[in-house]
Amino acid sequence: MKVLVVFGTRPEAIKMAPIVKEMQKRTDFEPVIAVTGQHREMLDQVLEIFQIQPDYDLNIFKAGQSLTYITTGALEGLEGIIKKERPDCLLIQGDTTTVFSGALAAFYQEVKVGHVEAGLRSHNLYSPYPEEANRRLVSVLSHWHFTPTEKNRDNLLREGVDPKRIYLTGNTVIDALKYTVQKDYQFEESLLNGLDYENKKVILLTTHRRENIGQPMKNIFSAIRRIVDENPQVEVVFPRHKNPKVRELSDPYFQNHDRIHCTEPLDYLPFTNLMSRVHFVVTDSGGIQEEAPALGKPVLVVRRETERPEGVEAGTARLVGTEEESLYQACQELLTQPQAYEAMAKAVNPYGDGHAAKKICDALVGEK
To answer: What's the top EC group for this one (predicted)?
Structure first.
């Protein structure tokens, strides 16, 4: 089965890498890898970690790129690849503009689409933006729907998707952790090697979403600053997104604080190993809501809604919103109430058993 595997950003690459590795070791697949380069540097880091060499690289990234530019560039580039390769299937993951463009390009060429991580819904078309719209549109164009959880499956059934086309697989991000987290891992950045993860309570903070830029992000940074000032045992690591607005907003709260460590964005390998060592995570990321529970780390989600409610329902994550006081109180609880911390840290991860890639490949060849 010739499968054109398409991705364009770091999160997509992380979640597609286990599928690519599974296909490469089997004789019933001929994988062809195409990257759009919607992200550039961060994407290349993941390709290197998993030793994946793309067959095609559209390299569309440019500074200040618009959603229209990404869509049209990926659509035109992928059309040419599909016409040349004539794959049996185009496989995409998630909800980026690359994913939507890939599904549309395949539809125009009458090639079946397999959608990894299908069925996620926040039920707010503009949050996250544009991801919620992308994933809804891709569901209309897909032949195979690979859902991480039962709730994702139920979302698709409510939208009228044929149940025979839906496969419950778990999330491939759990598969990916098997390749990366190492007990004896040494960070290139000496700061991260020097932190006392055993005796200090290190908090990992990430925030980058468009909808949080502005007052919500100020609230997040203010709450974190209060937590550090009031708890001498706490240190914070904040790998700062390259978006200059994020850096501008964080500087007044974090600059020159000896227990708040602002770093450059981390590669996937050091990031997952850092996450495995910290006390808990504060994030507005989607993927981290899945990864951290697999490592036994509580997650405080600084968003108003999440398309990953399974973690909240299982108790591994808590949706705290973006108000300063709500985040402050949630952090204080995890820092001062061991029972509350243990309840989150030991909750069962709802995102799978680490064998999603095999289940996806089996489904593809079983129903070609």
So the answer is: isomerase
Strand, coil or helix: 33: strand
The CA distance from 189 to 88, in Å, is 44
Contact 353, 134 (CB under 8 A): no
What is residue 67's three-state secondary structure? Answer: helix
To which residue do tokens 């069962």 refer? Answer: 348
Whole-Å CA distances, 32 to 69, 144, 201: 24, 18, 44
The tens digit of pLDDT for each residue in 270-299 reads 999 999 999 999 999 988 998 999 999 999
Which residue in 128, 147, 173, 197 sits closest to 288, CA to CA?
Answer: 173
Pairing verdict, β 260-263 and 2-7: unpaired
| DSSP code, position 264 | P
Q: Which residues are catalytic?
A: 95, 117, 131, 208, 210, 241
* Angstrom distance (rounded) from CA 190 to CA 217: 28
Provide the Cα torsion 321, 327, 333, 336; round to 10°.
160
Round to whole Å and give the CA distance between 24 and 352.
22
The Cβ of residue 125 has, within 10 Å, a number of other Cβ atoms equal to 10
Largest CA distance in the chain: 61
Alpha-helix runs per DSSP H in 50-149: 67-85, 97-108, 131-141
Alpha helices in the chain (DSSP H): 10-24, 41-49, 67-85, 97-108, 131-141, 150-158, 172-180, 190-194, 215-230, 244-254, 268-275, 287-294, 309-314, 324-336, 338-345, 356-366
Distance, CA of 240 to CA of 237 (rounded, Å): 9
Burial of residue 193 (number of CB atoms within 10 Å: 0-12, 13-18, 19+): exposed
Question: For 349, which DSSP code?
Answer: P
Q: Tokens 């395949």 — which residue?
A: 106
175-220 confidence digits (pLDDT tens) = 999 889 998 999 999 999 999 999 999 999 999 988 999 999 999 9
Q: For residue 284, report the phi and psi dihedrals to the nearest 5 degrees.
A: -115, 10
